[in-house]
Specification:
about 0% helix, mainly beta
């Protein structure tokens, strides 16, 4: 099971850190990905990390602004989001996969999501 937290209302240019806590399985053997879905839009892959080796992958829309990281001891993956824009608004989900990919079809064990709203 994966549980997201940390979503909030933030002004443009602000920062947030999202957490994805895993239970029932140990990180270190999977890729954990962050996805987002805005109203009326398809789910979009944002970032993912190999929890064993630490390799990462980012979408072009967030590269240089978002950083994904892991703490295997806490069984948690984080998404640090800086320089937030209104277009970053959406429900953010984390999920697990075997491969390093931003394709949602590769992922299972989806969390319930956490709302991020970027607005003045």
């Amino acid at each position: 099971q994966l549980v997201e937290s940390g979503g909030d209302l933030v002004q443009p240019g602000g920062s947030l850190r999202l957490s994805c806590a895993a239970s029932g399985f140990r990180l270190g053997y999977f890729t954990i990905g962050w996805f987002r879905q805005a109203p009326g839009k398809e789910r979009e892959g944002v970032a993912c990390i190999r929890t064993g080796g630490g390799s990462t992958l980012y979408s072009d829309s967030v590269k240089g602004r978002f950083t994904i990281s892991k703490d295997n001891a806490k069984n948690t993956v984080y998404l640090q989001m800086n320089s937030l824009k209104p277009e970053d608004t959406g429900v953010y989900y984390c999920a697990a996969a075997r491969l390093l990919s931003l394709d949602s079809a590769e992922y299972t064990n989806w969390g319930q999501g956490t709302q991020v709203t970027v607005s003045s």
